[in-house]
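Exam review. A common question shows you a sequence with its structure tokens and asks you to describe the fold in words. Practice with the pair below. Do the first one on your own.
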Amino acid sequence: MTAEDLAPLELLLAEQDEPQLTPGAFKDVFRRHPAGVAVVALEHEGRPVGFTATSVISVSADPPLLAFSLASSSSSWPAVSQARTLAVSFLADDQDDVSARFATSGIDRFAAGGWTALPTGEPVIDHAVSWVRARIVQRTPVGDSYLVSLRALESGTSDASPLVYRDRAYYRLRP
């Protein structure tokens, strides 16, 4: 993406004369939108860093690209801002406790175990539905967050059912 590609986005964000949703109304819309639950994790300065994300999206199959957003105020942002690679673990329907742990500030999110470091160092959550190890290709500032774009390098999958989050509650998908 070049500077010219970003210019239209900056212009759209700068338009102040049209009405816009309040942050609360915007959050209310997305609280009602169900999302898969993932833990994004990486190694930073010899220690694991991770957080819960419901913003992970598939961007392209060829090349294999995915992305997530992260608030610039997040305690994990300094590590993500410097990382080269990371892992995204898509949680299974019995891992709501893992999601809650990785969403909690001020604790060692890895102390309770339940994760394994890949040979390349990135932590993945044990028994997740799937995981992707990826290289960060771009960090784009958007509003008060960053859109982090990734190129998938390797993955693993299981037959587990996914964990879904909607309106501050966890749900399980059943056939």
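Now try the second one, then compare your answer with the model answer below.
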Amino acid sequence: MLNAVQVLAENNFGDTRTGGLAGPMGLFLIVLLGTATVLLIRNMNSRLRRLPERFPQQGGPVETDRTDSSATGPSDGTTGQESRTNLPSGHQQP
């Protein structure tokens, strides 16, 4: 009976090496991911600080100096304002 308990209690899961690298490698990866996260947050904060406090309104007339056909408006015969008014409220045309 005691022999059967000893066989069942023995660690025989295939990882019997001493001095394995799983612990230090896991710590290295956690520190690396933490450092990358901190650097990403700092970068995004600096980019957000550079943005203007308010953006100009998107619906106003746009002055362009282009003379190509894309500056005249949509090709379906409507003006730019007509196509914008058909959008649901809260949506802006790109």
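Model answer, second protein: Residues 63 and 71 are 9 Å apart (CA to CA). The radius of gyration is 32 Å. Full marks require stating both points clearly.
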